Amino acid sequence: MRYVFRVDASFQMGTGHVMRCLIIADELKKQHQCSSIIFICREFQGNMIDFIMKKGYQVRLLPSINSTETANSKKIDSSWLGTSWENDAKQTIHIFKELHEPIDWIIIDHYGIDSRWQKEVKEHVNKIMVIDDLANRSHFCDVILDQNFYHDYNSRYDSLVPKRCIKLLGPDYVLLRPEFMITEKKAIDKIKKKRKIFISFGGADPTNETEKALNALKKIKTNHDLEIDVVVGKGNPHKERIKRICDTGSFRYFCQVNNIAQLMADADLAIGAGGISIYERLYMGLPSITISTADNQTKALNDLALEGYVYYLGESKEVSEILIENTVLHFLLNRLELKRYEFNERSNFLWEQLQNPSNNQQKDTDKKGFL
After folding, report:
1. Which parts of the sequence bind substrate (predicted)?
2. What are the pLDDT digits (tens) for 212-222?
């Protein structure tokens, strides 16, 4: 079997697309030891190409796009692809042909790709899987995965994918790394000697919410005897500045760690963004103060907050240091309020879905093992 991933990372789009593709790739490698797995990426600033290669996967690079070509392109998708969808599809097909072997599956995780691109490459691949969370464009695919919780998650793609498409929607299908499965018990039985706050805004954090949160916590850290862990990704353009702040403020600094589940398990409260990290924190039973750092996070965070799963402060441009400070103080001084976000009846429902993916037996029978 040959699997190809079309995915990018950059300072603009973050690293989450690559990380969730790697979860699938690792599982495929474990299940099909003789499979060929190839990533096709463009070399944007803030890319994860070296990280993918260090994980043992082959990466084929699409041609670099010069600034003139990008500026001259009026296509909406060019802001994500760096070029028009037609050009990106043509370049991808060229790589297909260089492989000289049939492609069983192409797995696409990219906001710049829609049904036009997918139809263009279809004759060169057997099956197409799409990972998405926007539900704002049509897809020509055999499988679509959107692991996010929305009030309407079961119907969001009804008019956007072919009727034959297998839809893997909602937190039943959340992509969690194996480390979270190992660490789950500690999240339930944790006993704290000292209150600890966990700060992480994903792999890139383009709006630098990490620094905003650190500045907010400087004022209350000593008075409330807090330990604060700060995790940034390799693709964070502010990571050196964040490290200096942590060094001078006695915060613990971590960059691109492999034990993030343990750090979450040890914490009492998290401050972070949307994306996959929300479901990681829910899985670990960690209450979260959340800030939207991208347009695609806002609806999911709103819906999760309305159900009582997270405490949502708003979009990054609306959230000040003083708002973060006051919210953290509120939770520190109201332990029962904090506990409400750990394991109340509402959060238990979602947490159980995360622990027992595909609880619906018929759904599981129909959809498992398609890759």
Report:
1. 177, 280
2. 999 999 878 87
